[in-house]
Amino acid sequence: MTDIPAVRPPLPPFTEESARAKVQAAEDAWNSRDPERVALAYTEDSVWRNRDRFLTGRAEIRAFLADKWARELDYRLRKELWAFTGNRISVRFEYEWHDAGGQWFRSHGNEQWEFADDGLMRRREASINDVPIAPGDRRIA
Predict the structure, then answer these.
(1) 10 within some domain
(2) DSSP states of 84-135 as a string?
(3) Dist. CA 51–CA 115, nearest whole Å
(4) pLDDT, tens digit, for every residue of 52-109?
(5) Which domain holds residue 53?
(6) Residue 60: exposed, middle, or buried by beta-carbon count in 10 A (0-12, 13-18, 19+)?
(7) Domains of the chain: total
(8) Is residue 5 part of a domain?
(9) Quick one: pLDDT at residue 141?
(10) Given a cut of 70, is residue 49 above it in pLDDT?
(11) Does a structural domain hold residue 2?
């Protein structure tokens, strides 16, 4: 397991610039499709709601992500800052992926993030909807 930095900048309270940097860092990490790398951005006891799933802790997050990217093939994500205040950031996002049968999907959603003082995310609330798309309708390469 990779060592976790004691501090993960940018740190709250967020400015527009630091909130945008945090969102871009999250997009870059998720696009790596590396569950270990992504899980390190969360506190050891981080609490998630992802659609209808409720997770607690980095180990559950890591396992969830490994399963996700085993099913959601060729996953590509785009995140956009929606709002920020203090130690919270809200984003809208969409990502595209296909299943093992070759059906492509675009998943739309929003997330609310809450950060600890050290810059690790301690809470994530995600609402997501999936729409089947034709391969020619993809927007994210």
Answers:
(1) no
(2) EETTEEEEEEEEEEE-TT--EEEEEEEEEEEE-TTS-EEEEEEEEEEEEE-G
(3) 20
(4) 999 999 999 999 999 999 999 999 999 999 999 999 999 999 999 999 999 999 999 9
(5) 16-137
(6) middle
(7) 1
(8) no
(9) 83
(10) yes
(11) no
Report d(CA 111, CA 121) in Å as an integer.
12
Q: How far is CA 77 from CA 45, 107, 127, in A?
A: 25, 9, 15
Phi, psi of 3 (to 5 degrees): -65, 145
Mention every residue, 6+ apart, whose C-beta is less than 8 A from residue 55: 47, 48, 49, 61, 64
What does the mean pLDDT of the chain come to?
96
The pLDDT confidence band at residue 5, using thresholds 50, 70 and 90, is: low
For the chain, give me the number of helices (H) and strands (E)? 3, 6
50 closest CA partner among 131, 99, 107: 107
**Does residue 3 fall inside a structural domain?**
no
Decide if pLDDT at 3 tops 70: no
CATH number, domain at 54? 3.10.450.50
**What's the one-letter identity of residue 135?**
P
pLDDT at site 2: 53
137: DSSP letter: G
